[in-house]
Amino acid sequence: LDVKGNPCEDHCILQHSNRICVIALADAHPVLQKGKAIERISYQISANCSRLQNKVSGKSKRGAQFLTELAPLCRIYCSDGEEYTIYSCIRGRLIEVNESLLGDPSILQQKPFTDGYVAVVLPKFEESKTITQGLLTRKEYEEVLSKRFNSAS
């Protein structure tokens, strides 16, 4: 919720039973909520860091970039000049980024929880239970959205 204190810039973390976490935009994120036109998505985080250079190999995921909770994954540039940074929100190894968003960023809005995911992160085994406990269920998130909507009215 409200990642880095930015109101309504919610991120969604879908965790599989094998610990792998898929990072996506949550329902209330302005890109989805306001139907903004996305110009492009960039995984170039800084002059020296591109998430596209993440090369993972083997069972132990050698070469994967290690991410902290506040590590930026990508930036979304909208046609209205707005820019949104999507963060990892969890500690772990970056397994992959969704390169198909580079060619067709609209997938992010059309299928945010399937083909429009941002990245896949694998948390450390010993931290995966803590991560799960810190996440909201779908029902809890809908309650937060309901309270947000009612207080805005």
TrEMBL record:
InterPro entries: Abitram, GCV_H/Fam206, Single_hybrid_motif
Descriptive protein name: Protein Abitram
Pfam families: GCV_H
Family from the record: Belongs to the ABITRAM family.
Localization in the cell: Cell projection, Growth cone; Cell projection, Lamellipodium
Family matches, as SUPFAM superfamilies: Single hybrid motif
Domain of life of the organism encoding this protein: Eukaryota
Annotated transmembrane regions: none
Lineage: Eukaryota, Metazoa, Chordata, Craniata, Vertebrata
